[in-house]
Amino acid sequence: xxxxxxxxxxxETRQGEAFAPFALDPNVYSKRFYIESYGCAMxxxxxxxxxxxxxxxxxxxxxxxxxxxxxxxxxxxxREKAEQYVRQRLTEFRRLKDAKPGLLVGVLGCMAExxxxxxxxxxxxxxxxxxxxxxRSLPALVEEAxxxxxxxxxxxxxxxTYGDISPVRLDSNGVSAFVSIMRGCNNMCSFCVVPFTxxxxxxxxxxxxxxxxxxxxxxxxxxxxLLGQNVDSYYFVDESKDEVVNFAQLLEKVALxxxxxxxxxxxxxxxxxxxxxxYTMSKYENICxxxxxxxxxxxxxxxxLMNRTYTREWYMAKIARIREIMPDCGLSSDIIAGFCTxxxxxxxxxxxxxxxxKYDYGYMYYYSERPGTLAHRRYQDDIPLETKKRRLQxxxxxxxxxxxxxxxxxxxxxxxxxxxxxxxxSADDWMGRTSHNKVMVFPKGNHxxxxxxxxxxxxxxxxxxxxxxxxxxx
Length: 474
Ligand code: SAH
Ligand code: SF4
Ligand code: F3S
What we know:
Mean pLDDT: 92
CATH architecture of the largest domain: Alpha-Beta Horseshoe
Shape: globular
Low-confidence stretches: 1-24
Strand content: 15-25%
Bound molecules: S-adenosyl-L-homocysteine, iron/sulfur cluster, FE3-S4 cluster
Helix content: 25-40%
């Protein structure tokens, strides 16, 4: 499902990952489930909620699909390719079902929501269809499916946030965790399917977010990523305390839990990120100096068709403001090539705004029309595929150059790195991240360090995607 022209692994294009088993005591768990997740970080975070719900109802996880009584696929609808890949996977599971009577297969997440009954009626690929707001009903749906009934719940909610559910940390490195702070999206960008698959925006109660973050810190986690489609519009009215909490205030409250707990967040919408958020970031050392601020297009005309509600100039002023308040802040973006009616001039505007913003990295796609979206209803998907691909390649090439330049600027600097584990290539090297979200790889040497430790690392050299360094000895 990964876009061929993507140079980087992105949340939305993460390949499905089977989650590690957690304590599977046959006396406690009567059945086993296997879950695979696709799409954005919110989906991965939701799978941890699903695991918690199933756990409480006597199901244990397994990462061996052959051992499973229930196979769940948490799906993404963001681009056509994402859906094609899931279909292929479900066809493979269908074959397993034929070989193992009684095996149940369920489709969860955004594709379940988008296609609803079509799954059961037309395709007969799956036994259960469960939308993103219906996970509490999963144990009951399993019972229904076991008796051969069609088990479907795709009702979207205005208030479900799973706030009281303590996610089971699946496949965790024990250092970083996702914490969902809101669900849904009210923005209606014309290309985007998310408002249809995830419903109205709602914010999770502040106290439950703080409790989850404190529990993680107590268990030794060192980094939380606060998740939402549009985190800057977080807004929770706490009637019991007569208090209203916005995103800047939430950030501050989480930052105060422990100076050793780093905070990241995703995703920010350029129209909503406020000076208050920027000042709060600069005030606390443990709020990472990194913002993912998707531009989508550099042309004001296209931005208007996309219903992004900002112009090129407005976005540039926002970047200038970020640089003014936090000169060392890392920046990344999402970019779509070949949206409806895009001209060569519009495309050049995208390239030039990338140069202006000097993104450290970018997540780049060509436009994929999604049924039911505003763009599908209003505009013609009129840019030929070859043109989309060529423009995307130019964007990818430029981003490659900008990433190299960004890494070059880090040469000779020393950064505080949070160790996440061994580097992929060698157990003699550590891998960690800087506050501005750069991956740093460095030799372990004779230092007595473990994952989850902070260490100062000097940048000696770099590749396009990684800084290579050495521990600073004091
Ligand atoms: N809420 C986030 C992004 C969610 S989707 C935000 O507003 O930034 C992640 C990215 O997928 C988007 O930023 C966009 O760049 C891309 N995307 C969404 N719909 C798409 C489509 N129909 N075709 C191609 N890319 C798309
Ligand atoms: Fe989609 Fe726009 Fe909402 Fe992001 S802000 S999820 S792109 S509608
Ligand atoms: Fe995909 Fe749904 Fe996330 S469409 S990007 S999994 S919100």
